[in-house]
Specification:
elongated; 3 strands; 62 residues; 1 helix; three-stranded antiparallel sheet; 24% strand; alpha+beta
């Protein structure tokens, strides 16, 4: 699994947009482009994906 830097753009009027980048430099460039296009810096969230392997087992009796 490869880690990604996630850039999330929130908006009150629509669903959030999520962009994935492989490096910090690429994410930084992506954020700069968003700001140049008019996106408010306050609506941008940068997060790092934490890859996990999760196994779920469910037992159901009727």
């Amino acid at each position: 699994m490869q880690q990604q830097i996630l850039v999330i753009v929130t908006s009150l009027s629509s669903t959030p947009n999520v962009f994935g980048y492989k490096t910090k430099d690429a994410a930084k460039e992506g954020v700069q482009k968003l700001i140049k296009k008019g996106t408010s810096p306050n609506s941008i969230i940068v997060a790092q994906e934490l890859p996990m392997n999760i196994d779920i087992q469910v037992d159901v009796e009727f």
